[in-house]
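Protocol step 4 of 6.
Sequence for mitogen-activated protein kinase kinase (Ostreococcus lucimarinus) entered exactly as in the expression construct, tag removed. Do not edit the line below.
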Amino acid sequence: LGVADLDIVGVIGTGSGGVVRLAKHKRTDEALAVKNIAISLARDDDGRKRIITELRTLHKSSCEYIVRSLGAFFDQGSVNLVMEYMEAGTMSDATKYLGPWGEDDLAAATAMLADGLHYLHTKLSVVHRDIKPCNVLLNLRGEAKLSDFGVSGHLVDASKCHSWVGTVTYMSPERIQGESYEFTADVWSFALTVMECALGRFPYNSPDVARRYSFWDLLDVVVKEPVPCLRPELNVSEEFDNFVALGLNKDPSGRMLARNMIAHPWI
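Step 5 output, structure tokens:
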């Protein structure tokens, strides 16, 4: 695929990693998403590494619950990553416009994403490092898929990551404290994401806007205070409550792995 094969329809998303546009393939009329990453954003080795990491991760993936890459090309100083178009937006969009998710729908989406995360960890040896509602894409077939691998890290054998990258408020306690981390750091972010969709707000935020934490206070709370719970605020099943609790274990050695998620009775 190249720029000559596509008709650009318009912008559908923006972020620090680049601009995502909706495009139509001229020959097939298929709707595609094109992520445009300006090389000017990669002025140092870290920036270039992020681009290469995302290209490599999506190219190697063959999991149905990781957004599908259809190729990449260079045009006018930018790398363009062509992906399947997920027309229902993100989990964040769904929560914002439709409100908190019902438990059954959330369990179905969680099962797909747990499969994707398990594949990422075991087949590609990659830590995502930025799982959050806006990095989970949805389509009208009811599928949920992991996306945005620009800050992902590769683990070899028993190594651990040390880089402080990603969205800080979704980081696990060990990451906030600057400690080394591994795949279980993704599980924390994933459990927090699932909990946010159930509550309809970020779990560490109070329903009362006036009582919400400042950024630095929030990080202190994540590290030092008890983790948030679904019950008794929500009338959810014991299995769902347990699933979230196992994912939000502050001790990474006691946190469940993606394979434990797949086998959990909630999903």
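Step 6, annotate. The CA atoms of residues 246 and 254 lie 8 Å apart.
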